[in-house]
Amino acid sequence: MAHISIRNVYKVFGDDTRRAIELDREGKTRAEIQKETGAVVAVSDATVDIEKGETFVVMGLSGSGKSTLIRMINRLFDITSGELLINDQDVAKMSREELRDLRMRRASMVFQHFGLFPHRTVIDNASYGLEVQHVKKAERHERGRNALKMVGLEGWEERYPRELSGGMQQRVGLARALATDAEILLMDEAFSALDPLIRREMQDHLIELQRSLHKTIVFITHDLNEAMRLGDRIAVMRDGKIDQVGSAEDILVRPANDYVAAFIQDVDVTRVLTAENIMRKPRGTVFLADGPHVALRRLDEVQVSDMYVVDREGKLAGIVRDKELAEAARRGDRTLEQAISQDYPCVEPDTQLHNLFPLASEYTTPIAVCSDGKLLGVVPRISLLDTMSKFEGGENGSSD
Ligand SMILES: Nc1ncnc2c1ncn2[C@@H]1O[C@H](COP(=O)(O)OP(=O)(O)OP(=O)(O)O)[C@@H](O)[C@H]1O
Ligand SMILES: [Mg+2]
User: Fold this and answer.
1) Among 79, 164, 67, 44, residue whose Cα is nearest residue 114
2) What fold characterizes domain 4-267?
3) CA dist 152 to 24, 125, 126, 148, 200, Å?
4) For a tag site, which of 17, 122, 129, 285 has the least CB within 10 Å?
5) What is the DSSP annotation of 240-309?
6) pTM, two decimal places
7) Kind and range of the H or E run holding 321
8) Over the stretch 71-113, which tens digit does the pLDDT of each residue have?
9) How far apart are CA 219 and CA 196, in angstroms?
10) Which residue's CA is the nearest one to ligand 1's atom 30?
11) Residues within 5 Å of ion ligand 2 by Cβ?
């Protein structure tokens, strides 16, 4: 069961909503419909399932319907047509009570301009969502304090928003959403008002938090780099329609249409794709227990000049190169001990491609991708160059 299920959802602003939807189904554009009926089809026939614990990013140009879509999830906007279910419960059919509960306890919003109360302390801001739920002061402060700790604002409880930087204020906004324990976070351009560096910091923070919290996050942005960093999946919207839903890689490598392709043109793929995304299986490996002759034969079989050495558990033990192996064989060595080298490039799977370039220029050996000491794959220099060439200008793309 999807956490949030959006099925053929329409939102039309205006009077003649029925006619507008009819025209939309006939294939008329938003502009044509507006001209004919005066109504704006803000969201058109949106269908998508958002899974529990995923970070789902909605992106698209201004006016594409992102905010309208997110606001239907907690019914700040009524749905004109279609169905929107949260845990299989139809949002349109919720009673006033259920709706209150949805907004206060189950789905918290984080806004672009923080929305803090200037005359309340940080702790009172962070625990505001609990105050409206009439949670007793001691408990709400306890939970507010915990939430502030999560966002790295321990010790700032008694300060006022004006004493905090923009990034810190946004963290209070995030803490307020976290304090309610809501399972869904709705974040509409939550980081867009921040400076590029602070914004990146907030993204890192959210990624880190999400690793342990596993909230269902619907995150709106018009920034593709942000979308690709944060999103498990990304929906691209245009003129109220969802054009494509997929992983960052899906969208980069297989854009659904020209609009999406144009969108990704200036994305910095070196900061979006990671070693894991482009790694290959090594052409071969040598076992630690092998001798120099066996190792040489393996190199010869696949025509390479070096190979990674792994132990029985698949842990990376080092690298052997043809020259040292040949010498060891000539000496009559029985083990690889004298031939094995620890001088090789090695990165974690989530290393961004731009961090691979220095290694690729220093070593001709494919870069080893390791996790917990295990060799997961390799990134040959040619794969790195090939990936870059697919995204012309990617190397010089924006990096904020
Ligand atoms: N309350 C409203 N009444 C009438 N039209 C509206 C209303 N809210 C939004 N719209 C229209 O619906 C369309 C989608 O707006 P929406 O705010 O969802 O876009 P958005 O993708 O969030 O844009 P932005 O990136 O600028 O925030 C726009 O054409 C907008 O003019
Ligand atoms: Mg918006």
Assistant:
1) 164
2) Rossmann fold (3.40.50)
3) 47, 15, 13, 6, 15
4) 17
5) TEEEEEE-HHHHHHS-SSHHHHHHGGG--GGGTSBHHHH-B--S-EEETT--HHHHHHHHHHHT-SEEEE
6) 0.75
7) strand 316-321
8) 999 999 999 999 999 999 999 999 999 999 999 889 998 877 7
9) 17
10) 63
11) 67
